[in-house]
Write a structure and sequence with these properties.
The chain is built from 18 helices and no strands. The protein is an all-alpha fold. The chain is globular.
Length: about 525
């Protein structure tokens, strides 16, 4: 087979369903809905498995005779178990950040069904091995680090694959607000993962179940992906999105989603009629040269640094402070931390809607990031006043912090559909998504590691003070990275407004001339 051509037979589950039912094949909308639902559940399960370690940290550290901790992380074995847990976080996130660059290129050249299902089943296997260390009485730091390296590498298979699948099935005009809702899978996964892990995190005898339960979910979904995931419409005898008739509302959505650095007339657009499986993916360096990729990737570095510091360290922070004069245990702290993700769901949807209405992705991200800077200070300073204040401020902070993170991970992929560099080649989506998310994942690695260093050896209410200053600086840096794109968006928006005003003046002038001619008659 030639370069970029991948043979992907019809999944066994779909073939069996057709054979048994003998009914009329499902329509395009049914398959598209199935893809959106399945990919949503798939990436939700990936994030469920990311949450486990952050919830059990307090149990592993231990703080009393009733909660002795788990060697080598407890204070009786190592004077600073927090730093050792920082090494564990770094092993996972560093492995993820490195692997995702390779996963994007691999996903562009192999069957997405095989690639994704293998990654999910291997994630399940390594997560179970991590959890079994509790029941096998394993206390080796090397074992934990190696397991986290493998878990991070296999988790990197998720994002490039689901983005490529969405590119194969969903036309350009269907992205935006819908993608904002779809992208809430990260926050939903964090919430469910936190609740599932917290249910077993308090006991030193059963904390391993916090890893095993989420692993079962992703493993089961991996089997469903292998049996029931058609990677392209052509695989089930349907037309690709590029051949479907574009309706008027979809055309308007395309215009609102297009990158302001690329202006085109839809009448001149060339529709690529080829099967996506026969289109070779673009190279890593070609993807880097697409306008906007570097800016959004850099912004995601800092945005993800903030979000993943909360993802991995928020339950631990809540456990170390007094909220309304009360200290909460590990399980309750994990439950409270879910409010950050609930706010993130709403932020993702609103950010996508706002970007659709304005067509200004960079400006929307900058506004959200700039608002999050003072909110971080307010949350740290006043969030301990009462339990209700903690919940409200955390949800609002999640709204403004997660909104840009969610938008950035989908905005550039949507822009690729109109980029002259790829001309609708959905096989480029995995590579570009890997570049953007991989760069963000480096920031996600840096954030928790810096946090572990900054809080090492410290105790009391001021333990996380420096961490919050770092997060404020990172949110501001994310906004700075997008200033050049913001300037382009302002110029483009101004030009469109002037064009609109000129057209209206022309229409008014013609109307006045018509009235004057009628009056003379």
């Amino acid at each position: 087979m030639g370069s970029g051509i991948r043979y992907d037979p019809l999944p066994l589950g779909i073939r069996f369903a057709k054979l048994v039912s003998g009914a009329r094949p499902p329509s395009q909308i049914v398959y598209k809905s199935w893809i959106l639902i399945l990919t949503y559940l798939v990436y939700m399960s990936y994030h469920m498995n990311k949450k486990s370690l952050s919830v059990v940290k307090t149990t592993l550290l231990g703080n009393s005779s009733e909660s002795p901790g788990w060697p080598p992380f407890n204070n009786s074995v190592h004077p600073d178990g927090v730093q050792l847990l920082g090494y564990i976080d770094t092993a996972f996130l560093g492995s993820y950040a490195v692997a995702i660059f390779f996963c994007g290129t691999i996903a562009d050249h192999v069957s997405l069904r095989y690639f994704l299902s293998t990654g999910m089943i291997m994630t399940c296997t390594t997560m179970v091995l991590m959890g079994m260390s509790n029941f096998w009485n394993i206390h080796s730091l090397v074992y934990f680090i190696v397991m986290q390296i493998f878990i991070g590498a296999f988790q990197a298979t998720g994002w490039p694959a689901v983005v490529a699948l969405i590119g194969n099935w969903v036309g350009k005009g269907s992205r935006g607000f819908i993608m904002g809702i779809w992208n809430s899978h990260t926050s939903v996964g964090n919430i469910l993962g936190g609740l599932v892990a917290a249910a077993e995190s308090d006991s030193i005898d059963t904390w391993g179940l916090s890893f095993i339960f989420p692993a079962i979910v992703i493993g089961g979904l991996g089997v469903i992906v292998f049996l029931f995931l058609p990677t392209t419409p052509q695989a089930v005898g349907l037309a690709p999105p590029s051949q479907l008739r574009r309706e008027e509302d979809e055309e308007r959505l395309v215009r609102s989603l297009q990158n302001t650095s690329t202006h085109f007339d839809s009448d001149d657009e060339e529709i690529d009629m080829r099967d996506p499986n026969s289109i070779p993916g673009i190279s890593f360096w070609d993807a880097l040269r697409i306008p906007g990729v570097l800016e959004f990737a850099s912004a995601l570095f800092f945005a993800k640094l903030v979000c993943y510091t909360f993802l991995f360290c928020l339950p631990q922070y809540i456990h170390t402070i007094k909220i309304g004069g009360k200290v909460y245990d590990a399980s309750k702290s994990g439950d409270i931390a879910t409010l950050f993700d609930i706010g993130g769901i709403l932020g993702s949807i609103f950010c996508g809607l706002l970007a659709d209405k304005t067509g200004c992705n960079a400006i929307v991200c900058i506004v959200f990031q700039c608002v999050s800077v003072p909110l971080l200070y307010i949350y740290y300073t006043y969030g301990t006043i009462s339990f209700s204040a903690q919940l409200v401020m955390m949800a609002v902070l999640g709204f403004f912090s997660n909104g840009p993170y969610a938008l950035i991970t989908t905005a550039v992929s949507a822009d690729l559909g109109t980029s002259e560099h790829v001309r609708g080649n959905s096989q480029a989506l995995a590579t570009v998504s890997a570049i953007i998310d991989g760069t963000g994942s480096i920031g996600a690695t840096v954030g928790p590691y810096i946090t572990s260093v900054l809080i090492s050896g410290r105790s009391g209410p001021k333990t996380f003070e420096t961490v919050f200053y770092v997060l404020m600086a990172s949110a501001a840096a994310a906004a700075v990275c997008l200033l050049r794109l913001m300037a382009k968006e302002i110029r483009t928006t101004r030009a469109r407004i002037m064009e609109y005003l000129q057209l209206n003046r022309g229409s008014d002038a013609k109307e006045n001339i018509s009235y004057s001619i009628i009056g003379k008659q």
